[in-house]
Write a structure and sequence with these properties.
mainly alpha, 2 helices
Length: 68
């Protein structure tokens, strides 16, 4: 969040030369937002689904019995 808020002045540049810095600032802010959303929301969902899949496979797999 610190990097995101630090890049906001670049993204909102309105002074002289602002038209050159604005696209770079928007790319930084957009990239940080997307990466944070993926990290905070998408990754846990994927892990939850993977855990559910592996749990059902573990229950459905036959158990090998050792013969003596």
């Amino acid at each position: 969040m610190a990097a995101l808020f630090g890049a906001l002045p670049i993204a909102l540049a309105a002074g002289s030369g602002g038209e050159a810095w604005r696209p770079r600032g928007l790319a930084i802010v957009g990239g940080l937002l997307v990466s944070q959303l993926i990290t905070l929301y998408l990754t846990p969902v994927v892990y939850t689904y993977m855990a559910a899949i592996f749990a059902t496979r573990r229950l459905a797999a036959p158990v090998a019995v050792a013969r003596e």
